[in-house]
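Exercise (ungraded).
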Amino acid sequence: AQKVTQAQTEISVVEKEDVTLDCVYETRDTTYYLFWYKQPPSGELVFLIRRNSFDEQNEISGRYSWNFQKSTSSFNFTITASQVVDSAVYFCALIRANAGGTSYGKLTFGQGTILTVHP
Amino acid sequence: GAGVSQSPSNKVTEKGKDVELRCDPISGHTALYWYRQSLGQGLEFLIYFQGNSAPDKSGLPSDRFSAERTGGSVSTLTIQRTQQEDSAVYLCASSNRPLDTQYFGPGTRLTVL
């Protein structure tokens, strides 16, 4: 079975600080996809990024960056120069992509990290 | 284009009553998922529809839960004889294909009194 662990339950920072959200995953599959979603106070899950297990290139999108390391089974998310609008719950998730068995195609979520950015 | 929509946004019901929750996926998406988000259990998978294949019901917590997807589009999640532990936010998502990015609707908050 696969598992996603977000060890940080809550993080509180002051605006303009950089913050890193940790995500560690477990899977026996060789092919899988990793995701980050943001859930603002409005409640809707907003897609941020999708990576496949064969692509370990780090990615940057504006103030957001992601560090994927298969050697440590980690997929960490950094927000640079945080803003109050970044306050939300952030979820890391995994989909196994080896066909067959249960869980194929379904998201397994971590418990989420509550990020609060203070002005 | 339009995203995933769900109705109602909020539902309050009495214990023992049946409820139906509706999901309209993104047009053209072949895969549709239901998840549940509760304080104690986090985000958990319930059921998954892909095209005309038999749905994957492996996440349904009891036989009081069922879902159908008509015409490969709209889906309805039905909970019979609701219990207080069914109180949660029920989220629907759709994707173009099974392993593509899943896009979520705003959810239905169910409260069982």
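Further reading is listed at the end of the chapter. For now, observe: The mean pLDDT of chain B is 94. Chain B touches chain A through 24 residues (CB under 8 Å).
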